[in-house]
Amino acid sequence: MRVGRVDSPQSEGRSLKFPGSPLSSGPESLPEPGGPSSVHTPSTSASTPGAHLIIQNWRSGASIGHGSYGSVARALDVDNGFIFAVKKSTVTQSDEEDRKYLAKLREELDILRSLRHPNIICYLGHEYTGGTLYIFMELAEGGSLAKLLKEFGALEGALLRNTILGMLQGLVYLHTRNPVVVHRDIKSANVLLDLDFNVKLADFGCSKQVYDMSTSFHATGSFSWMAPEVILEKQGFGRKADIWSFGCTALESSTALPPWGKGAIDGMLSAVKLIGLSQQTPPIPESTLPSLKNLLQSCLQRAPDARPAASELLSHEYFMPPMKDKRRHHDSRVAWS
C-alpha cells in the first residue's frame, strides 16, 4: 500500500474552500490513468455557521491512523484555526499496479464528493501536489468506535441503540442513492464519532458505485466482518454483504469483541473455513436484549436474499418506540444544507 507521509512540517493548500459552492481550478490534479499529468485542481467550497472559510495555508499534524489506500492525520488551517483531517496517498504510475491504485483513488474521490449526510464523514476537498494526493475531511474528534470499545468496553441501552441506528441511517443513505454506493468495509474501525457521539461511516477506499447489481467484485474488506458470499467471491454480492457487515459491527458494539469472538479468525484460510464453508453465524450472547438479538439474527443470515434491506431495518422493533435523544447538540462547523 502506498501512503503519503503524515509527519511533514507543513503543506500549503491551493485556495481550498469547503463544500457548498462550485469547484474552481488550480495548479495540479490527479493524472488520468495511463496518461500524462494534467494541470487542473478542483478546490472545494462550503459555508459554515457564521462565516465562509477559505483555507490557503494548512499544516499537517499528528497521525490519526491508516485507512484504505492512505494514512490519516490531523490538519490545521494556519490562517483561521480550522482543524480538519487529511488523508494522504502517494501517487505514481510506474507500472500496472500503480495505475490500478490511481484508478481506485479517483473512484474514492468520486464517491466522497457525492455524499452529504450527517451519518457519513464529510468530504471537504482535495489537493494533488508533488505526487501526493491529500483528501480533506471532517475531523471526528471522538475517534473510531473500535478505539472507544477497546477503551470503555461494550455499549448498552440507549447509547448502543443510538450507535446502531446512526450506522444504519448512514447505510440507508448509501444504499438508496442512484447509483447505489456499497461500502464494502463496514467495521468498528471505520465508524467514527464526534464529541456528541454522533456516528459517521468513514473510509470509502473499498467502496463501489454500483449501476448493475449483478456486477461481480473481488473480495475486499476485513475478514472477520466479511459476508460468506464475499469470502467465496460469489457473483453479484453488494448491498446485502454490507448488511452482514453492519450486523457484525452492531454485535461488536454490544460485546466489545470481534464478531466471531477473540482469536476465532487469524487469516484468510480460517476465514474461508469458518465464514465461507461452514453453516455457522457469529455467536450472539444469550443475555442480548431479545429485540436486538432478532435484529442481529436477521442481518446475519448466511443466504444474502434472506437478509433485509437497510431501509427495512429502520422499522425494526429494536428502534421502537422512538427514543428521545437527550444528547447535547452544538452547532457543527460542517453545514449539511
List the keywords:
337 residues, alpha+beta, Transferase(Phosphotransferase), domain 1, 2 domains, five-stranded antiparallel sheet, three-stranded antiparallel sheet, ATP-binding, Prot_kinase_dom
List unreliable stretches of 5+ residues: 1-27, 33-52
Q: What is the CATH superfamily classification of the largest domain?
A: Transferase(Phosphotransferase) domain 1
Order of helices and strands: EEEEEHEEEHHEEEEHHHHH
User: What is the top-level CATH class of the largest domain?
Assistant: Mainly Alpha
**Order of the strands making up the biggest sheet:** 3-4-5-7-6
Number of strands: 12
Question: Can you describe this structure?
Answer:
The protein is α+β, with helices and mostly antiparallel strands. The protein has two domains: 21-137, Phosphorylase Kinase, domain 1; 143-319, Transferase(Phosphotransferase), domain 1 (Orthogonal Bundle). The protein contains eight helices and twelve strands. It has helices spanning 96-114, 145-152, 157-175, 228-231, 239-255, 268-277, 290-299, 310-313, and strands at 21-24, 43-45, 58-67, 70-77, 83-90, 123-129, 132-137, 143-144, 180-182, 191-193, 199-201, 208-210. The strands form four sheets. It has a five-stranded antiparallel sheet, with helices on one face. Strands 8-10-11 form a three-stranded antiparallel sheet. A two-stranded antiparallel ribbon has the order 1-2. The longest helix is centred in the first third of the chain and has 19 residues, at 96-114. It is globular.
